[in-house]
From TrEMBL:
<feature type="binding site">
    <location>
        <begin position="113"/>
        <end position="114"/>
    </location>
    <ligand>
        <name>beta-D-galactose</name>
    </ligand>
</feature>
<feature type="active site" description="Proton acceptor">
    <location>
        <position position="348"/>
    </location>
</feature>
<dbReference type="GO" id="GO:0004034">
    <property type="term" value="F:aldose 1-epimerase activity"/>
</dbReference>
<dbReference type="GO" id="GO:0033499">
    <property type="term" value="P:galactose catabolic process via UDP-galactose, Leloir pathway"/>
</dbReference>
<comment type="similarity">
    <text>Belongs to the aldose epimerase family.</text>
</comment>
<feature type="binding site">
    <location>
        <position position="282"/>
    </location>
    <ligand>
        <name>beta-D-galactose</name>
    </ligand>
</feature>
<comment type="subunit">
    <text>Monomer.</text>
</comment>
<dbReference type="Pfam" id="PF01263">
    <property type="entry name" value="Aldose_epim"/>
</dbReference>
<dbReference type="InterPro" id="IPR047215">
    <property type="entry name" value="Galactose_mutarotase-like"/>
</dbReference>
<keyword id="KW-0119">Carbohydrate metabolism</keyword>
<dbReference type="InterPro" id="IPR015443">
    <property type="entry name" value="Aldose_1-epimerase"/>
</dbReference>
<protein>
    <recommendedName>
        <fullName>Aldose 1-epimerase</fullName>
        <ecNumber>5.1.3.3</ecNumber>
    </recommendedName>
</protein>
<comment type="pathway">
    <text>Carbohydrate metabolism; hexose metabolism.</text>
</comment>
<dbReference type="GO" id="GO:0006006">
    <property type="term" value="P:glucose metabolic process"/>
</dbReference>
<dbReference type="GO" id="GO:0005737">
    <property type="term" value="C:cytoplasm"/>
</dbReference>
<keyword id="KW-0597">Phosphoprotein</keyword>
<keyword id="KW-0732">Signal</keyword>
Length: 384
């Protein structure tokens, strides 16, 4: 096992303290919401609060403006039983603690995924970013967008609008970037995320959402029996530090072929170099897109015992699938339940990793006068 690897991920996996906040019961279907008081705090003069959204058709979600984190997400199973299906903590201090878990439920940026050696050259100028993942930069660096208190510009029963201004030079990235992000729960039981960003200097922007999902309910067992479909014929293979080699390889005849629904655990321990590099699945799939810009079906996750289904729709060319390989049970999350090995998955729509150093990949460059946009939808349903 490559024990020296993945320092940045380790920062997301070890938490100090086990204080459990007292949750609040709701009348509807036994849903247990996190207490507002456990998520209220002032940091650097900015107030952090907890906000509760409802789809009006059975979905309830709690969001913090600290990193735009999804704190809880309650969905019904085929029998109408509700579970909170995302990993998280029961109070804001566990998210603020830099040595604790960072990567549960936030937006990640200014650049989601990895940049090799934390370096890129833009218009002849070399930029060095802080390193936080085995000599690489992961998810925008140690103080990326997930560690910022976002402004709450508008809030309604089913929507929250957030914004953040990233100053020129923050985490080594050029340009002042103004970001807007909207979370909406639709009557169709979609969790819809829309992003937009502008800059005053050429820079790179690649945003994504980083919830950890378990359709049995967070802390309720393995995800290796979840059935996964990914609409992708290729992946971007990686080296031993999970930086793309620059190639795109076919999934045909490999453990990475999820074009038809397949149990996550069916081939996860196969004798395969890419699986060894990731200690399981932690790779970018190249989506079989019909158009360049439309929101299209990307992936689905199905838990056959309770019938929960989560579809992923996006306008992005890639999706990072991570199978919870670094979760080790040392962290206790909500409801006193541990975050155990391979008990959650992340499905992150984005452009490819290390694109600033891979000119053959879809560009993440953003220039003044242009607007970065992205839409990601997680749609929830059940089947008998």
């Amino acid at each position: 096992m490559k024990k020296i690897f993945y320092l940045g991920i380790a920062l997301c996996l070890f938490s100090c303290g086990n204080k459990q906040a007292k949750p609040e019961q709701t009348a509807e279907s036994g849903i247990t919401l996190m207490a507002d008081s456990a998520f209220t705090k002032t940091v650097d003069g900015k107030e952090i609060k907890l906000y509760t959204l409802e789809s009006g058709n059975g979905i309830t979600m709690q969001v913090s403006n600290f990193g735009g984190r999804v704190i809880s997400l309650w969905t019904p199973d085929k029998d109408g039983k509700y579970e909170d299906i995302v990993f998280g903590h029961d109070n804001i201090d566990k998210y603020l603690d830099y040595e604790g878990e960072r990567c549960l439920g936030p937006v990640v940026g200014r650049y989601a995924n990895r940049i090799a050696k934390g370096q890129f050259t833009l218009d002849g100028k070399k930029h060095q970013l802080p390193l936080n993942n085995n000599g690489q930069t992961l998810h925008g660096g140690p103080n990326g967008f997930d560690m910022k208190v976002w402004n709450v510009d508008n809030i309604s029963k089913n929507q929250i609008q957030l914004s953040y201004t990233s100053p020129d030079g923050e985490e080594g990235f050029p340009g002042t970037v103004n970001v807007k992000m909207i979370y909406t729960l639709t009557p169709e039981n979609e969790f819809k995320i829309t992003y937009s960003a502008t800059t005053d200097k050429p820079t790179h922007v690649n945003l994504s959402h980083h919830s950890f999902f378990n359709l049995k309910g967070a802390g309720n067992g393995t995800i290796t029996d979840h059935l996964l479909t990914i609409n992708a014929s290729g992946i971007t293979p990686v080296d031993t530090v999970l930086i793309p080699t620059g190639k795109i390889t076919s999934v045909e005849g490999t453990p990475f072929d999820f074009r038809t629904a397949t149990a996550i655990g069916a081939r996860i321990n196969a004798d395969d170099e890419q699986l060894k590099n990731g200690l399981g699945y932690d790779h970018n799939w190249v989506v079989d897109r019909k158009t360049e810009k439309d929101v299209e079906f990307i992936a689905s996750l199905y838990e056959p015992t309770n019938g929960r289904v989560m579809e992923v729709w996006s306008d992005q060319p890639g999706i990072q699938f991570y199978s919870g390989n670094f979760l080790d049970g040392k962290v206790t999350g909500k409801y006193g339940k541990a975050h155990n090995y391979r008990e959650a998955v992340a499905l992150e729509t984005q452009k490819y990793p290390d694109t600033p150093n891979q000119p053959q990949f879809p560009s993440t460059r953003l220039n003044p006068g242009e607007e970065y946009t992205q839409t990601c939808i997680y749609k929830f349903s059940t089947k008998k």
